[in-house]
Predict the 3D structure of the following.
Amino acid sequence: MHTQRNVTGSYWLRTAPGPDRPALSEDIDVDVAVVGAGIAGLSTAYELARAGLGVAVLEAGRVAAGVTGYTTAKLTAQHTLVYDRLRRTRGPEGARLYARSQSEAIEHAAALVDELGIDCEWETRDAYTYVRGRARVDELRAEAEAARNAGLPASFTMETGLPFPVAGAVRVTGQAQFHPVKYLRAITDDLVARGGRVYEGTRVVGLQEGGEPCRLTTESGHTVTARDVVIATHYPVFDRALLFARLSPRRELVVAGPLNDAPDPEGMYITPEENTRSVRTAPYGADGQRLLVVTGEHFTPGTGDVGAGFDTLARWAEEHFPGMSPDQAWATQDNDATDTVPLVGPFHPGARHTYVATGFGGWGLSGGIMAGLLLTSLITGRDCPWRELYDPRRLKSVVREAPSLLKTQAEVARHLVGDRLKPPGSVDDLEPGDGTVVRVDGRRVAVHRDDEGNLHAVSARCTHLGCLVSFNRAERAWECPCHGSRFAVDGTVIQGPAVRPLEPRDL
Ligand code: FES
């Protein structure tokens, strides 16, 4: 039996509180409406404002508090082992365009940090993908060659700053890490200073397109009229192109704590082994201390023992960095595109004024900034060399990605049908802090018992497409395994694609 690790919430969000932004309280008319104030949405809105367009950002929660504020905040064009795969699936030119687009995004962010004088703990670091077992060394050698051919300063090495030996690593020099929330707060301030509008607590529930202009409706009943609309809500809250069939959600755990006497590995590291381990450090306090941030133990939302995952990750951090004390824990969520390339561009085959940015597969910081630049090119009518690479309408790759697409759908079907066959839980057996799905009058009800023993009951049917939610005890949230929607114990939406809450139920 594992201990229940305290989920502290994101270090980045805690250390960069920002001003409240108003909720939308009237109907408005803008050139471009951006739904979602994470790094992809804000970068897009910011670039558009700089290009002279009138923009409004509509965020259901708070700025940077969706996924961006929970990441490890690495800004690198090295995305684990992407280049060897890309040169096979999209050809050498595809791999080269991917490397260039991601590198230019990082350079663009560096230039903005300089220009605006943003204090966001920007540090230049080398990025490493490493393995400890000999079985995958050839894979790494191939990746080093592919990344180098794609134009990155990449090499194979056995030397790293990690305090344990590796069998091999791909090193890409001159990448970066930063404090993502400090960066986004500064970008948001400058966006507002340029006349951009940013609304928090404004959930968009309807999109009307086809006529001109587009029309968005918010939960509070207000309307936003815009020539162009960008959906940058991580998992798209509207799905006109069945993108949900091409995305699989993945939740990943993070532990962090002061390095104390453990040596600073200096670089940014990731391994595909051990259910993923990703490592970086960040400035921590005034006396030169560093914070070690470790990510790993990924799982499909709504499945697995999350508390045990936190414990495993914390133990790994303590064993591999003796002296560090993991005193912080939070989790993040990613969407993997079935062909591993993000989906950024026109929303669907018939789209003329609606755009999407999603499927960053855990690399949403360079990817989100890249999306801002790419979507701004598309909306302002400028060409962009990598528009086809990321185009969500890409058809050839849909054929190529058919096996993983079918696998994703089989998984969804398994939850949609199989979860209903599971025997229901019992309220009597429910411990404080836990939750279970029970059956009441033939209907599935999600019940949580709080620390005081009070019961909270909501419908267990996810409001996106009807899969059954299950309880994540460590984070005290209902999660849907089909497309990753998350709900608070009172049914409120924490994360889409669902936009409507789980309805209250009587027991
Ligand atoms: Fe799609 Fe729940 S997120 S059914």
